[in-house]
Amino acid sequence: MTGDKRLSEDELIARYFAPLAGEGALGLRDDAACLTPRPGFDLVLTVDAVVAGVHFFPDDPPASIARKALGVNVSDLAAKGAAPSGFLLTLGLPQGWSEDWLARFCQGLGTASADFRCPLLGGDTVRSPGGVSISITALGEVPVGRMVRRTRAQTGDRICVTGTIGDAALGVVLRDGPSPGWASAMPEALRGFLVDRYLNPQPRLAAAPALLEHASAAMDVSDGLAGDLAKMMRASRKTARVEARHIPLSPAARWAVAADRTLRERIIAGGDDYEVLCTVPESHLGAFAEAAAAAGVPVAAIGTVLDGDGLPIFRDGDAECRYERGSYSHF
Amino acid sequence: MTGDKRLSEDELIARYFAPLAGEGALGLRDDAACLTPRPGFDLVLTVDAVVAGVHFFPDDPPASIARKALGVNVSDLAAKGAAPSGFLLTLGLPQGWSEDWLARFCQGLGTASADFRCPLLGGDTVRSPGGVSISITALGEVPVGRMVRRTRAQTGDRICVTGTIGDAALGVVLRDGPSPGWASAMPEALRGFLVDRYLNPQPRLAAAPALLEHASAAMDVSDGLAGDLAKMMRASRKTARVEARHIPLSPAARWAVAADRTLRERIIAGGDDYEVLCTVPESHLGAFAEAAAAAGVPVAAIGTVLDGDGLPIFRDGDAECRYERGSYSHF
């Protein structure tokens, strides 16, 4: 069925969205959702949109698009130390959308929603003249007054990241067109890993309790490590020094860099890692790494917060490098 | 300045959005907003998007577009008996957007936000290939367990509406193109009134306390009285009879109907009134009307909830009419 013989909005809701609805959503049969906040908890709220041709390829698998749209929001919650409560969705569909596309989108959204324990609370479906667009508002909760801020890095704190950096920035190149030279001899498993890191970000929800307990500041890496670190330091009125050799790389990224050393800049400056970047007081570093590891999240200390207001310095052997471009911008 | 020499997203936020930010928004300098819920209150959440060429004309005044985008959401809160807490905004801007347009949009958004006591809590700005699109998630609060539902109309309850019905459905015709016959001799003041009702919906926030106290069910009229009443009755597993002569019309709408009686159907079936449609037990009717009037909101009883599951009947003299089309759909 195509957009020309389309379902009514009520039928869409009943068939595809109601099965994803959480308790507060009232079965999506009312004009609003209703949540009773848990006493002793603050509400954390974030909104991020993704647009076809800007943030994803129109022919990306619909389930991946859904997972990414929800994942980028849940990643923000995780970096703030919050546990998800639910989300509201605005889905813009172009002329000629197909019910098959929608079914696969909703299947992916349902799986992601279950994985992230983040149920659908409400939504709106509209016609979108320019292609698919998805805006999601996600809600989470943290103990009162405990949201991990972007602004509170302290001089001497260690800078840490979860997981590995740069995979999605390499994956999007592989997804985008003809295979670049560095990838021509790359084993299929490594290529697949990188593309998956671009298509299916894994929000670091498991790290949230360790962040709450130990981090002085945190944000997720959505626009590249260099730009996001600069943003966090600016917000905290600090600067930083990073040891480039301590930035954790996946085997696939190491393979790519061995084939083409210029990729180091892409790895540091580029893209959608959806890992957590945080600062941790030196005295908490061991306990933080231990708590994160116990939750299944590897963390690496890559640098130190310094007094000052310049762009962070990335030291690579004898070279020192600043990334002028600031954050990669989708806008 | 045009989109080609555009501001960075951080500059946009600092210049245009930060001035609208509420307390929980942390100056829009973090990745998420943080609200401490008021003990004893539930959170009411709603999301609605408006898209250029679908829900508004691309050349509508930017301040009106902003007011409408926020107003349609605040109208949902009002109908649920909720007081606004704040909103999150996703703004999609097309290639070649101008800073002048954005400045006027944000000026209108700021005025509406102040009028509705609904501050900005967070947002995302993205490129929109298909024209301006705006998605807003609005939050409000009601005493625990008291949200006025769509689903709880009881047999024998009176059906009431606030304000006047059909003005926006006539106003959009005047806004849309060559003046129709019925409008050719209409005094300018009446034309202006109707167009303003289309451009600048007035959410009935002042009616929220009276609804909380007296209404068994409520929703806002966003898709036409006939369709929205059908929706509310279906959700409550009831039907209804409406006396068409009791539907409150503005002087401008009365003028239009006197010129062209066929407009009665457009008034009943059409568009964006953003008045509140509610059901009130007979024993509460007087107190409800009094409380609403004391808050500056006129209400009219137009019909009665009946057992049954057919479409509501609109009685007009000796004629009885059902509106098959259901809700007007923007989708």
Description:
- Two copies of one chain form a homodimer.
- Chain A is of the alpha+beta class.
- In chain A, 34% of the residues lie in helices and 24% in strands.
- In chain A, the strands form two sheets. Chain A has a seven-stranded mixed sheet with strand order 7-9-6-10-8-11-12, with helices on both faces. A four-stranded mixed sheet of chain A has the order 2-5-3-4, covered by helices on one side.
- In chain A, strand 3 (83-93), helix 3 (99-115) and strand 4 (120-127) form a beta-alpha-beta unit.
- In chain A, helix 2 packs parallel to helix 3, helix 4 (167-176) packs across helix 5 (188-199) and helix 5 packs across helix 8 (251-259).
- At the A-B interface, strand 1, strand 2, helix 2, strand 3 and strand 4 of A face strand 1, strand 2, helix 2, strand 3 and strand 4 of B.
Give the radius of gyration of chain A.
20 Å
Number of strand segments of chain A? 12
Number of helices of chain A: 10
Question: Termini separation of chain A (Å)?
Answer: 33 Å
Topology:
Two copies of one chain form a homodimer.
Chain A lengths: L8 H9 L15 E3 L5 E11 L10 H18 L3 E11 L5 H17 L4 E8 L5 E11 L14 E5 L4 H10 L11 H12 L8 H7 L2 E4 L4 H12 L2 E5 L7 H9 L3 H7 L6 E5 L4 H10 L4 E8 L6 E4 L2 E3 L10
Throw out a few tags for this protein.
homodimer; 331 residues; alpha+beta; seven-stranded mixed beta sheet; 10 helices; 34% helix; disordered N terminus
